[in-house]
Design brief:
Largest sheet: 6 strands, parallel
CATH architecture of the largest domain: 3-Layer(aba) Sandwich
CATH topology of the largest domain: Rossmann fold
Radius of gyration: 20 Å
Shape: globular
Helix content: 25-40%
Strand order of the largest sheet: 1-12-7-4-2-3
Structural class: alpha/beta
Number of helices: 8
CATH class of the largest domain: Alpha Beta
Number of strands: 12
Length: 226
Amino acid sequence: MSARDEILGAIRDSLKRAPGDEAAVEARLSGHPRGIVPQRSQVAREAQIALFLEMAEKVQTTTARVTSPEELPEALADFLKRHNLGGRIKLAPHPELESLPWSEKAPTLTLAAGIAEDSDEVSLTRAAGGVAETGTLMLCSGPEGPTTLNFLPENHVVVLKASEIRGSYEEVWDRLRRDYGEGKLPRTVNCITGPSRTGDIEQTIQLGAHGPRRLHVILWDDGEEA
């Protein structure tokens, strides 16, 4: 028996599982069983979108809504102006973001695509989904979404389509499995609820402790079916 077999055998014994239970484990993993889903998220689409915005704003996420991709550059410029931020943006190399009419709608912005660096103050990324029950964003790692953009700059702006919002976490995972293919999910899926915070110091909430100080969601009402 190899060291690996001994370790796995000890784990199996502690879980009181007999050899041959692999099929049961595989069935559970492939079946994606549901836990208890909060009733508040099981509502009509418009109500889910409203719930997502409400829950996001409760955890200090700021939001804006646009009805077309042409409005996205101006919405970003408005956020920068409101917080007196410069016009340098580190952009996720996502086709939907790179193809926006930046020079026409926001000519004062300077954009560069790629991973985040220490000097980057503002990042712009595309979410893969939104969870209405908690106002949570789900962002997938990969060539079109470097994970560093989610955590290194102090100001994180995320574009989310209304059609990508679901009531529960389970429903977002279902959509990701559908879009990526079963067993082909990205290496990392970050679930982000509000800007970074800590209450360790005198029980006082401090923003920006372990990541962005500001999180801003631009919700794109794309009109597509959920």
